[in-house]
Write a structure and sequence with these properties.
39% of the residues lie in helices and 25% in strands. The protein is α+β, with helices and mostly antiparallel strands. The longest helix is centred in the middle third of the chain and has 40 residues. The model has no long low-confidence stretch (mean pLDDT 87).
């Protein structure tokens, strides 16, 4: 059973094996939100529609963690200081090795500027100037396991459903049942982006916007959504549900 973690109204997967299984076996993409020095890393945030599908298929459970002990502020501070000091030492050693290959050129340039200090003095100044690690710029680890005692509260499916709406749930499930890979389409002006294969190697082919079946559109709205699809090289699709059936309308842009 895959364990999903509920935090502040969002659902995350922290475990690497669970994330790999979700992606490769169940076509649940999520969105990686962590990073280590600008390299994407876990956790991955899941759409409510993704979570509901997993719950319906009894593939996962959603829990909220609550600590059973109060964090010791002195222990946290000691950990932070030890982490910073370790990074200061490692980075200074790396910077020292770099400067040893450059110091002759640096000294030569300083001499032209009238700096007649010894090579060692210039070296130490450069080393101290360029290897300053503080808590503001240090690298922070991302913890994927928690060894502190916790009490687990299971989040019911109804609570996850309240984070979205029935229209989006049905459309997502229909697209997933058809074998597509699906991610959030918010940054492209829709609800979902739809792929023929894993987004790592495929581009999205559809931007899907979920609409009520009785909703009317002005010509300007249709043109705007259609042009949006063309501008990002994807087809704009309107999805609606009536009597339990999902209907799709693709907006094709034809040059006159």
């Amino acid at each position: 059973m895959i364990k999903l973690t509920f935090i502040n109204g969002n659902v995350f997967v922290f475990d690497l094996d669970d994330w790999s299984t979700l992606r490769s076996v169940h076509r649940i993409m999520g969105h990686i939100i962590g990073n280590t020095n600008f390299i994407p890393s876990l956790p991955s945030k899941l759409l409510p529609e993704e979570v509901l599908l997993l719950l319906d298929k009894e593939l996962a459970e959603v829990v909220e963690c609550q600590s059973t002990e109060i964090e010791d502020s002195k222990s946290v501070e000691a950990f932070e200081n030890a982490l910073m000091q370790g990074q200061q030492h490692e980075y200074k050693e790396m910077r020292k090795a770099q400067l040893e290959t450059l110091i002759d050129k640096i000294v030569e340039m300083r001499r032209k500027l009238g700096d007649h200090r010894t090579k060692a003095e210039i070296f130490n100044e450069e080393l101290n100037k360029s290897s300053n690690i503080t808590k503001e710029n240090m690298l922070w680890p991302i913890f994927l396991k928690d060894t502190n005692p916790k009490t687990l509260t299971f989040i019911p499916k109804e609570h996850i459903a309240s984070l979205t709406n029935n229209l989006r749930i049905i459309v997502y499930r229909d697209l997933w049942d058809r074998g597509y890979y699906i991610t959030s389409g918010e940054k492209f002006g829709g609800n979902f982006l739809v792929y023929l294969g894993d987004p790592i190697i495929h581009h999205a082919i559809f931007i899907v916007k979920c609409i009520e079946s009785e909703r009317t559109f002005t010509p300007t709205e249709l043109v705007a959504f259609g042009r949006l699809g063309v501008s990002v090289k994807k087809q704009a699709v309107l999805a609606s549900v009536k009597d339990g059936c999902v209907s799709y309308i693709a907006i094709n842009w034809i040059n006159a």
